[in-house]
Amino acid sequence: MADIRNNFVGIKSPNPFWLASAPPTDKAYNVIRAFQAGWGGVVWKTLGEEGPPVVNVNGPRYGAIWGADRRLLGLNNIELITDRELQTNLREIKQVKQDWPDRAVVVSLMVPCVEESWKAILPVVEETGADGIELNFGCPHGMSERGMGSAVGQVPEYIEMVVRWCKANTRMPVITKLTPNITDIRKPARAAHAGGTDAVSLINTINSITGVDLDSFAPQPTIDGKGSHGGYCGPAVKPIAMNMVAEIARDAETRGLPISGIGGITTWRDAAEFMALGAGNVQVCTAAMTYGFKIVQEMIAGLENWMDEKGHASLADIVGRATPNVTDWQYLNLNYVAKAHIDQDACIKCGRCHIACEDTSHQAITAMVDGVRHFEVIEAECVGCNLCVNVCPVEGCITMEPLAVGAMDERTGKPVSPVYANWTTHPNNPMAKAAAE
Ligand SMILES: Cc1cc2nc3c(=O)[nH]c(=O)nc-3n(C[C@H](O)[C@H](O)[C@H](O)COP(=O)(O)O)c2cc1C
Ligand code: SF4
Ligand code: SF4
Fold it and tell me: Going by fewer Cβ within 10 Å, which terminus of the chain is more open, N or C?
């Protein structure tokens, strides 16, 4: 059986599945239920500084988008950090850690961007016996208006400064949680690295408005006729999160920096993909909020089964395995040729591939052949774009088949070259031409 025990910056957990800082980790009651269900660790709902806690709205704090089957695809929230007393949280964290010593208990923190505030909170968190801290530089609403959360996460200099303060004032491992509401994720990651962070975690939520009520003309979720942007998460954000994880994993300045992957993870496969791109473990929020804590059992069993099937003995065998295969567009092999192929037995003759290719691609799929409704790829026109695969409602019905080296590409009239050739040396590339002259 594959060994899925996780050691993330020295924090050990029986599996790589942690709950992200959010409502699932808001209090001992939830965390205990999560541990009973099998979660390897939690990042406790973000704590603020001593004093009166923040207040949340008293109406809808969530918005969503759904697929055609009403499956939740994206969740938006306008919730703030914990609205419970600091001392209550600290007491519960201490007790939970004592009772569950084999699970990871990391505490998320967000206090004003002054050294005194960080110096004050770090020892009291350390005293709970927590395994580490996560710096919340990500919340994109409410807290950011008060100069915290993403207001810090969007300024690399601030990130570096706060990480330095934390590293100087605690012995706990520091995980810096990044906001995706930024143009180039490598900049905040580099800043956290420069400040001495032990790891980064990402992504926090994305600025969003999920809907507008067309009777009241108010954004949703609506509070007394008004709405504000919230933070977007769930399956819809996974591609954005994975790209950001890969960007950090392959950046020369941050290569090797441990990453905790977050964003839309719902299944073991999602988790494995994040880890393959360089995440040392993963955190989950929306999936637990949608399906409950027991989904972790599916994740554990699925990951173990897949690893057994593929002969991966431990997580080290998969973490970062896909990172070297992420490259810039300019290095893709322009001599690689693939063509769409339709499995006639699987085809239900709905015509979607034809209309997509006919109207918006390369007019490479028939609709009628000899007066009969028939969908077939015209190889001489197909550019291998993959659009038909993506719009076909029958999974596996259309596949992309690479042409073998030497085979004739009927579209170009040339055989497939064995030579790898990319844009950097292509004759149409003005830069390459200039360099050659
Ligand atoms: C209702 C809600 C509250 C959240 N509160 C926090 C928070 O207090 N601190 C934090 O770092 N992230 C917070 N998050 C962000 C999550 O930890 C996580 O980064 C994000 O939801 C992406 O993961 P997911 O797609 O699995 O949900 C919150 C998310 C939701 C949905
Ligand atoms: S791969 Fe693109 S060009 Fe080829 S048949 Fe499909 S949609 Fe048309
Ligand atoms: S979209 Fe798929 S099922 Fe529909 S006609 Fe094309 S190949 Fe057949």
Answer: C
In a domain, 1, yes or no: no
Ligand 3, atom 1, residue with closest C-alpha: 392
Place of tokens 């998320």: 108
Output the pTM of the full model. 0.96
How many domains does the chain divide into?
Answer: 2
Q: Please report, as a single letter, which amino acid is at residue 393.
A: P
SS3 content of the chain, % helix, strand, coil (to 5): 35, 20, 45
Which of 344, 342, 369 minimizes the C-alpha distance to 353? 342
Residues 319 and 335 in one domain: no
Residue-range definition of the domain harbouring residue 376: 329-436
Same domain? 342 vs 299: no
Q: How many angstroms does the Cα of residue 194 sit away from the middle of ligand 1?
A: 25
pLDDT in tens, 172-210: 999 999 999 999 999 999 999 999 999 999 999 999 999
Q: Is the CB of 23 under 6 A from ligand 3?
A: no
Clarify whether 139 is annotated catalytic.
yes
Residue among 299, 265, 258 nearest 279 (CA):
258
Helix (H) or strand (E) holding 41: strand 41-47
Residues 183 and 56 in one domain: yes
Residue 114 CB coordination number (10 Å): 12
